[in-house]
Model the fold of this input.
Amino acid sequence: MDLFAEQAAAHIPLAEGAVWLPGFALPYMPALWPCLQQHLSAHPAQQMMTPMGHPMSVKTSSMGHWGWVSSPQGYGYSAHDPVRQQPWPAIPAVIMALAAAAAEKAGYPTFTPDSCLINLYAPGSKMGLHQDKDETDFSQPIVSVSIGLPATFLFGGAQRSDKAVRIPLQHGDVVVWGGESRRYYHGVAAIKPNQHPLVGNRRINLTLRKAK
Done:
């Protein structure tokens, strides 16, 4: 199957339980983008350190009851912004609506996320192959929203050694995975320099999960 022959397709299967929804987030963008700008102004993305003490390639912020954090003890979730020692702000209604609609389109009709991780990629930033396994509820899918510069999303399998499919994500694309593929390895290849008319020289990714 040629995954990329029909970029305009509304629903492209990637694996059992995983789909790519090209352009799905575009109708939400006029309301979503101002909310995201406001959030990043109040809660700027920070360059966290890995548990081994290395700076992460991307900068992160969070919304929702649980924010994703990294510490010397490992990765996990915290109800408070570690920089400001304040609770993370609620996920805006437009992002909740987008996540629920995308999940339903992918076959998960009851998704209600309690965490929205915001990753900011500058040119050259990347994300190595990894599993999302810091959550306590694996019955719920993951919804990933691409904003800004294009990215090559790497979607592998249950083992790190499984060959990854390379998916050319564009602004407004959404990827949803759950069920059998919920803990499949995935990552992002290095972002190439460019300019996006809305976001500038960066890519922003929203990852919505049910953490607890």
